[in-house]
Design goal:
This protein is of the alpha+beta class and 166 residues long. The protein has a single domain (18-144), classed as NADH Oxidase, CATH 3.40.109. It is built from five helices and four strands; from the N terminus they run H-H-E-H-E-H-E-H-E. The chain has helices at 2-6, 20-30, 50-59, 85-105, 119-129, and strands at residues 42-47, 71-78, 109-114, 135-144. The protein has a four-stranded antiparallel β-sheet, sandwiched between helices. Bound molecules: flavin mononucleotide (FMN).
Length: 166
């Protein structure tokens, strides 16, 4: 619960590089997430190239932090493995949350930036990264060593819960 409650979206990063080993650990966490029919249709593009990151930040709205991140991880779903977009979004979402929590437990900060289903984000990202049509880009995750501190979340709201007993 400590890791769950203290994870926040981090949009400011120091210049300290993010080691590949830590990114692999995050990807391991992502790929341990559940998927419908256990299809594991996710794909990941890891970007450690400041020039390309700046282009992503410029081309996609609300992703300005990508330019200064230690890395960006683009999460995609393969339609040849899972043809339904709805499942791709749910499955990739579960993987992304695992990845964010593992990053936070390592002391890293991340910001989950939506790509799909917004066409104005999908199209420029396809161009920049040469993404094939059978791959659905779901999100771009900026990762870095945090340069901001945020309060823990306490969002439990009993009004949002109904109980059915017997
Ligand atoms: C599907 C999804 C899309 C998001 N897209 C963006 C985005 O494009 N840019 C951004 O800065 N934050 C984005 N966020 C982060 C949310 O703004 C953030 O999770 C929310 O404000 C709650 O803050 P917290 O993560 O610190 O708890 C996104 C989060 C989710 C789950």
């Amino acid at each position: 619960m400590e890791i769950l409650n203290t994870r926040r979206s981090i949009r400011k990063y120091t210049d300290r590089p993010v080691e590949d080993e830590l990114l692999v650990q995050m990807l391991e966490a992502a790929m341990n997430a559940p998927t419908a029919r256990n299809l594991q249709e996710w794909k990941f593009i890891v970007i450690k190239n400041k020039e390309l990151q700046a282009k992503i930040a410029e081309a996609l709205p609300n992703t300005h932090m990508s330019a200064h991140a230690g890395a960006c991880i683009v999460v995609l779903g393969d339609k040849t493995i899972q043809p339904k977009d709805e499942y791709i979004y749910v499955d990739c979402g579960a993987a992304i949350e695992n990845l964010l929590l593992e990053a936070h437990s390592l002391g890293l900060g991340c910001c989950w930036c939506a790509v799909g289903p917004n066409e104005d984000r999908i199209a420029p990202l396809r161009d920049l990264l040469n993404i094939d049509g059978h791959l659905v880009p779901v999100a771009n995750i900026a990762v870095g060593w945090p340069n901001e501190e945020k309060e823990a979340n306490h969002r439990y709201d009993e009004q949002k819960v109904s109980w059915i007993k017997e």
